[in-house]
Write a structure and sequence with these properties.
It is an enzyme of class 5 (isomerase). It catalyses: D-glyceraldehyde 3-phosphate = dihydroxyacetone phosphate. It comes from Halomonas kalidii. It is found in: Cytoplasm. The structure is a single chain. The chain is 38% helix and 15% strand. The chain is of the alpha/beta class and 257 residues long. The protein has an 8-stranded parallel beta barrel with strand order 1-2-3-4-5-6-7-8, surrounded by 5 helices. Helix 1 packs parallel to helix 2 and helix 5 crosses helix 7. The radius of gyration is 17 Å and the shape is globular. The chain binds 2-phosphoglycolic acid (PGA). The site of 2-phosphoglycolic acid has 14 residues, from strand 8.
Length: 257
């Protein structure tokens, strides 16, 4: 069975409840997202998480949180637990985004604790990995990314791996000042990651998505590579039309579709 192609967005620290509701209303009516060859997902800020889960509950679109603590509950002011994420109705939790690693000092060891906690709670961790421009210039890109993946997955039982998603997001490619990776570079790194990662208990490779300045112009060549299992989009999907345009073009470019 071919796996659906993942297409999703994190809104980062954007959107009020009203804006979130408008976005969900547009997705709700989009036939494209009901195509079984696609698996859409939206990752709103915590404030909109339960509303977005409710608004998209009768669609196949999955919803995720942007981060969480590893503990189930306790004296961790300002944090959100895996239990709370699940309680909102979310399926996915994004972990280890480079903005969290850089601005909030998140370490690989902390991400590993969060991955295990997410899996224990029945969530799908979407583990973000990626090298900085400096690591790339020094020739350490693949070593960095593979180390991040290995530490994030340390101690995860093989039966749980089928719920793990990886997003390769080179730090130099993300955001306003980012340069998107070429399909050639992204494909090369995706193959390195695939070689280094364990497979699921059924022998399937873990899905590795690409993220970092994905836009309507570059999505087709990225989606055309069989080793890229999906696209994780920021700015270009903050309007629903952007997400849908990318989904449409990616699906058309997907091998075997
Ligand atoms: P961008 O963000 O598409 O705006 O570069 C990607 C990300 O941070 O996941």
């Amino acid at each position: 069975m071919t796996m659906p192609f993942w297409i999703g967005t994190s809104w980062k620290m954007n959107k009020t409840l009203g804006e979130a509701a408008d976005y969900c209303a547009a997705l709700h009516d989009a036939e494209l997202l009901r195509d079984p060859r696609l698996q859409g997902f939206v990752i709103p800020p915590f404030t909109a998480l339960s509303e977005v889960c409710r608004a998209l509950a009768d669609t196949p679109v999955m919803v995720g949180a942007q981060n969480m603590h590893w503990a189930e509950q306790g004296a961790f002011t300002g944090e959100i637990s895996p239990l709370m994420v699940r309680d909102c109705g979310a399926d996915i939790v994004e972990l280890g985004h480079s903005e969290r690693r850089e601005s909030f000092n998140e370490t690989d060891a902390a991400i590993n604790r969060k991955v295990k906690a997410a899996l224990a709670q029945g969530l799908r961790p979407l583990i973000c990995v990626g090298e900085t421009a400096e690591e790339k210039a020094l020739g350490a890109a693949a070593d960095t990314v593979i180390r991040q993946c290995r530490i994030a997955l340390g101690g995860v039982p093989v039966e749980a791996l089928e719920r793990v998603l990886i997003a390769y997001e080179p730090v130099w490619a993300i955001g306003e000042h980012g340069t998107p990776a070429t399909a050639e570079d992204a494909g090369w790194m995706h193959r390195r990651i695939r070689e280094a990662l364990p497979t699921t208990a059924q022998g399937a490779p873990l899905p590795v998505l690409y993220g970092g300045s994905v836009n309507p112009d570059n999505c087709a060549e990225l989606a055309a590579l069989p080793e890229i299992a999906g696209l994780f989009i920021g700015r270009s999907a903050w309007r629903p039309e952007g997400l849908l345009r990318i989904a449409e073009r990616a699906l058309a470019a997907r091998p075997g579709t």
